[in-house]
Structure formats: structure tokens, C-alpha cells
Amino acid sequence: MKVEGSVAIVTGGNRGIGEAFVRCLIESGASKVYVGTRQLAASRHLVQDYPDQAVAVELDVTDEASVAAAAEKCTDTSIVINNAGAFMNETLIGAPDLSAARMEMEVNYFGVLSMCRHFAPVLGNNGGGAIINVLSAGAILAVPNMGGYCPSKFAARALTTSVRAELADQGTHVGCLIVGSVDTDMAAHVQGRKEPPEAIARAGIKAIEKSIAEMDTDPFAVNVRAAMARDPGHLERQMAALLKAETLSTGK
Is the pTM of this model over 0.90? Predict the structure, then answer.
């Protein structure tokens, strides 16, 4: 489908990759973009920059009533960008309790599922449209020191495949982005090269317009997939070594 003339909603649209999506969608010709945010004031800068095209919508993807209300309000939506994410920076066994893992699953999996369920009829009524789920290299590679984050992204990747099959007959394209290291607040702890959020948004727009089911958005993601293909066992041992190194440095 074409982004030009479309109406999109972006979850977590007030900053980071979400903000980049809002800007790139509008610059690519979208007629309107709903900026999903838990606090309307957080998206004021986007509404000021695009007063005729950016519309702030109160949206908490972990609250099904909030998602349902957004779907009832945004009935002209033709593109859904499931971008909102949570990274709690806890391991699975070493965490004090299950709260971090539960939160990551609530946002990264159930939040995506809720958006898909409530907006599927909206997209169907508007000719099919597209859903793009913003995932991570952590959706194809389990990283032990990223605790519940990777399992939640693995689940969202499987969800993408299942929802694609369910919505095929209504003409909805369902795809996902495998994102590497990006210069956002969530990745502040990551060392090395980081891609600008705009690069991920541009890749997402390509995935929409070319109906790409799964797209590696940047060199980091491409390299992870290549390393898995070459020697998955070696890569697993490298990830385990990172966990040991982090344990030694933090004393946890």
C-alpha cells in the first residue's frame, strides 16, 4: 500500500523510534498520524510541528479499555505502527521477582496483541491497510542479560506470523521490523554504533509500501542474523559470556 494519503497510528509516538515514525510518515505524505501516548502533553511538540496532521491520542497499550477507546476514536486509521516497548534491564533467574518480566510481556506482547485485535476491524473497514510491529534483534537472538525482553519479542514475532495469516483475507499486510542498536533512551546502556531512529522509520515505511513480512532495519540486525546462520552455537556462547562479564562488573 501507499503511505501517501494514509492515516496512521503510532504507539509510543511521542519519542524515540515512535517520534521518528510520526515525522517520516507525515513527510512521506500521510494525511494524518495519531500520536499514541500515555500523557497527551508528551506529544505537544509534534502537534505544534504538524498542527494539521499530528493528532495526540491518549493510549496505554497495557490497558485494553484505553486501546478500545483509541480504536473507537481513530476509525479512519489505515496503518498501525506497534512501536511502544518496555525494557526492564533484569535477568530471569536473578531478578528479585517476576514483575519486570511480566511488564515486558504486557507491553511488548500483550500490548501488540491488543492493538491488533482492536484495530483489525478498523483496518478491514478501510480497505485492509497495514500493521507493522517494531521488534528487535532480541526477537531472533536470545540474550541472557536482557532477561524477559527477548522472550517478549520472540512472542511478538510469532504473533506477527499468526496475525498475518488471520488478516490475509481482509487484505491487511502484517509485518515486523528486526531492529538492532538505535540511538534512543531505551538503548542508552548499549555501547558502540547506534543508528538514528529515522533510519528505522524509513525502513518501516519501505516495509509498508513493499509488503515486506520481516525486515532487518540496520547493519547490527543484519549481522546478528548472519552470525546465527553461520554458527548459532558459537553466538549463544558469546551471549552467555556477556552475561558472565556483566555479573563480574556489577557484582550481581
Answer: yes
